Amino acid sequence: MFSRVKIDKHQLNYFRKQGRLAFPLEIQAFLLGHILTVDEIVVTDFLYTRTYAMQSNLEVQWTSESFEKVKKQAESEGKRIVGDFHTHCTYDPILSP
Fold this sequence. Notes:
By secondary structure, the protein is an alpha+beta fold. The chain has helices spanning 9-22, 64-76, and strands at 4-6, 28-37, 40-47, 52-55, 60-62, 80-86. The strands form two sheets. It has a four-stranded mixed beta sheet with strand order 1-3-2-6. It starts with a strand and ends in an 11-residue tail after the last strand. The model has no long low-confidence stretch (mean pLDDT 90).
């Protein structure tokens, strides 16, 4: 079963731009939003960090402090983390479970 995920095109284009600027390193954004039903998710925000715990051309990871800040922001805005999005600069895309 697949869910329909609604993402603002401007936010997606901004992510692509940031990915090109960071190349050959990966970047990652956490996605905030709402799960309306099991079939429909709305992404309202892409959140970025300034500093990664790990960033290479094969891997990217946020610091735990940055992740906690995202969780608190989501809670304060009545949203939740609905996923994350990261680039694959030097290899083919892989669908995460």
